[in-house]
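Bench log, entry 3. Co-assembly request; chain sequences pasted below exactly as received.
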Amino acid sequence: MRDLTLEDIEALAVGAWVLGTGGGGSPYLALLNMRRLYAEGKRVALLAPEELADDDHVAVVSNMGAPLVSQERLADSASIARAVQLMEEYLGITFRAIMSVEIGGNNGVKPLLAAAELGKPVVDADAMGRAYPEAQMTSFAVGDLRPWPLAMVDPRGIEGIVAKVPSWKWMERMARKMCVELGSTVANCKAPRTGAEVKRWGILHTTTQAIELGYAIQAAQREHRDPVAAVLESQRGVKLFTGKVADIERRTTEGFLRGMARLDGLDEDRGRRFELAFQNEWAVGWQDGTPRVMTPDLICVLDTHSGEAIGTETVRYGQRVTVIALPAPSVFLSPRGLDFVGPRAFGYDLDFTSVFPS
Amino acid sequence: MKRIGIDVGGTNTDAVLLDGDRIVAAVKTATTEDVLSGVRQALREVTEAAGQRDVQAVMIGTTHFVNAVVQRRELSPVGAIRLGMPVAASLPPFCDWPEDLAAIARGAVHMVEGGHDYDGRPIMPLDEGGVAEAARALRAAGIGCVSISSIFSPLDPSMEIRAAEIVRQEHPEASITLSHQLGRIGLLERENVALMNASLAPLARKTIRAFEAALQEAGLSAALFVTQNDGTVVRAKLAERFPVLSFASGPTNSMRGAAFLTGLKDALVVDVGGTTSDVGALRAGFPREANAVVKVGGVRTLFRMPDLLSIGLGGGSIITTDPLAIGPRSVGFRLLQEARVFGGPVLTATDVAVAGGKLALGDAARVADIPPRLREDIFTLAARMLEEAVDRMKTEAAEVPLLAVGGGAFIVPDQLAGCSAVLRPAHAHVANAVGAAIAQVSGEADQVFQGLSRGEAMAEAERIARANAVASGAAAESLALVDIEDLPLAYMPGGALRVRARVVGEIAA
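Structure output for the full assembly:
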């Protein structure tokens, strides 16, 4: 276990945004909360998953809702902490530590808010290794772990429990209804996990991965080196395409942001085209009409100059971007894993082939 | 109609006198510390040069307010009142401001219950007693600048309006800024705009009074207008209430001026200064609006600002040869001391232009040793940088004309990839002042309508926009609708519709 410095957390926010693979929401508001909590003297420790005892209880937290709403209602460290306490009260247990359901985007920093408020450590792990749009797209669902109960908190003193559901899909439906009624932003403490479950089914060391990624980008920016090269080196990633955004088309359907970005090649890719489909996050990429990269490989679109991630909500015409792929967690590469997060789970009739040799 | 346009920049105060579309006189004077004497001087010089003073309107564009934020001077402490508790409590007003600026502007922070959800329901009923208590505390503390921000106020401004009534009762001499009048969705960014506006209120009052005094001293009975971020003007009395709306009037006026001087309405404009080149896009003669967060003095804001791309390429940009690079560092206003052609030690873009015969300035003999090959490489590099900036600002692949203005425009080549032509308007050195002089008056409505049909709501929005334009000094019969859009608010009850309408017209004689 080690204490995280504020510099670690600033780097985590940069890295989590890249691992958001285009979605997950900006970690900016969560980072603002952490700056304040650290200024007040609070600290967060990072716990290696190997340090968990098999029968330890681990809280799995996230924020659920619409990104537009969180721009107005912001993010409150007290609510996410209260969700963890509510779960402890409901089950009569004491959590050893807190972890994130998704390391990508805003939720990558969220567990630190609860941890700082409650004085508990954060586990160096998550259940996606990135960001995904739907609640059943987790390694815990792939592992067929119990989806209930769920604790939900609104700062007006409204607290709810979903006590039991037969499937992850039902949990998504129940939780979504409650969330909408509360103004489309809530703090969640999801089905608790044991230490054994985290070690068996969690995606391990992703907090450290995001921090190292953030540091690599920050150092390259500071030393005027190529930040994209720094990302590739730090994450054993592959550069797929360098170009500029030639066209972007978005539509909001069934609560998701879907669409397509078209890139024209620059430098060594001059004369080539690249197309990227997204559902909140980047899902599939085609080079000159041929599938080149697809989920669960991580597809990240970076600003060619700054190395910072570009989201599906903010990408715009004329931006200079580099498309890279990072390796997917192995849990998603099994046939069952691909059922949950492979290209067909996003409606693309493609057999998964990885950019990375197996 | 005769009018005078004045642009008060950081270095120069420029003035032009227009008779209809004809430039009668143009002058350039130095900006002064107090602003007022520079404006007085410019008014005197331009009326003397024109030999006439029977102007009907004077339009002033000024960077004074944005400079006050950037340079942290003449700002007043603000009492921030936020309506939304218990939501967002852990991120209070000023939470993402640079500490040096917050230390000046953060007078007091009060957060009380209120605010709305995205579906129009109150988060909590407005705590009127809490607002009154906050107002009394601000009054007791001698804080006269007040900002009020409420969660989701762009969808429902009623709580901000009611809170303002209460503050006015308890603290009658307070000047009050409401966030929904300035910003968009995004509580922190909208609130930041309101806080900044409130902090500038006393300086705005003082500056506008000084402009009025300058007009009087010059013996002009013209109406006074102040230019806005969107390329239009409002009466000085109204501008005084919203100083943030003039933050970007410098680049806006230069773009509008370039459009007027070339007769083009759809084009890209590059304004090359000493340190940076600002590229913007004109659509139907007006600058395209930014739809993203813009940082002002280190503070994130989201409001009506032109979409500008700034790159580190200007007349004073420093050139390094290994590897070859121009900027982003610049000698800036020390060009006359530092550049080689003026006997200084630093190789700048200006030196290379003189060596290449593109510019006659200083002593060309001092740069005769620059090899022609290096000159060409530097010009090519500058062209590449400009081509990329132009390409990033285009929203479609077709070629567009580029208008080059500003003191460093010599660095822009006559041909650039992606541009159908590069045009250098006559009088480009006073494009800003021309842009101010030709500005029209606009009026806006941005409101949520309930219980009306789409057609009725749009007609009502246009009526409100026209009334606002007339209040800003427009001639009613000249007004034309330039922009109207309706956004159905799926989550609001009763078929709610948000309509934004904008009209533009001539100044009332």
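Chain A has two domains: 2-204, 226-346. The two ends of chain A are 32 Å apart (CA to CA).
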